[in-house]
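Course exercise 7: structure representation. Students receive a sequence record and must write out the corresponding structure in token form. The form below is the worked example handed out in class, using HPt domain-containing protein (330 residues). Read each field label carefully; the graders check that inputs and outputs are placed in the correct fields and that the protein name is recorded exactly as given.

STUDENT ID: A-19
EXERCISE PROTEIN: HPt domain-containing protein
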Amino acid sequence: MVDTSMLDLFKMEVEQQAALLNESLLALDQNPVAAEHLEAAMRASHSIKGASRLLGIESVQQITHVMEDCLVSAQAGDLLLDSAAVDVLLRGMDTIKEIAEGDGDLNLWLGENQSAFDKLMAELGGIKSADRDVPVETEANSPVAVEATPADVVMELADSQDTSMLELFRIECDLHGKVLADGLLELEQNPNSADWLEQLMRASHSIKGAARMVDVDPVVQVAHAMEDNFVAAQNGELVLSADDIDVMLRGLDIINEVAVCEGSLADWFAGRKQDVIQLVQALVAIKNKDIAQPPAASRMAATTAEDTFAEPDICLDIQDPSMLDLFRIE
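STUDENT ANSWER:
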């Protein structure tokens, strides 16, 4: 039986990500090659998949896995999400919401709705196998790039830190941290490797989602900045240099430090606050490294970043072991 606090966090995550997914899918119904909406829908489905894996909700994990695969294929230009395909994806989203809104053991839903689940999975699987011509983007339907604004680093730790959640978090960090370590070393040899950039983006996104579930915002912000850099590299907006990869590896070190911390996270952060702040600023700067600025403008931009930077707000009365364990799993 999953802990109530974990279920509540899962339901909040589904509610938030389903809203983003719904918005993106409706936009794709009008413009099926809109890159920004394909990306947003893929990330939302990936986030729900990660949360369902943490809680062992197999039905949601299977649905989102197939949905994510369809969206990745659409991003790669291997298929076109026509109105029929979007309708199936929307039904998948509705099913996820239905499961999340249940009471008690959410895995019981599958036993009571097996035939409906099997039909949905068959329809989702049919999206990728359908023979659909993919249109070439023109000026009229080409998506407008949206520049992401990095969020300030804010640290908020949940009042009750459930041991089981923190253990799951540690497992996730260990799993995806290994992908980050291996992938970053590979990028030093081949910085344009599409396969590794995709795996690194997903790994950082998963860690970000796990950290958000246990309210460890410094890790959210480190992973978020890393993810943005991988996405920019995927889009050809930058090439990660050896120095950039060194900064990314420092980000991974911080994530690992938090994940293995046995004591108070508030105490740990009190001693590492400036390091975390400087690291997030260095990670954010990677995306903008090729944008030339006059010296005065550069100094002014740096000053503005310092002036507007929000120092983490640390809750000192924390550390229910189960929440910390979940964080470390991620």
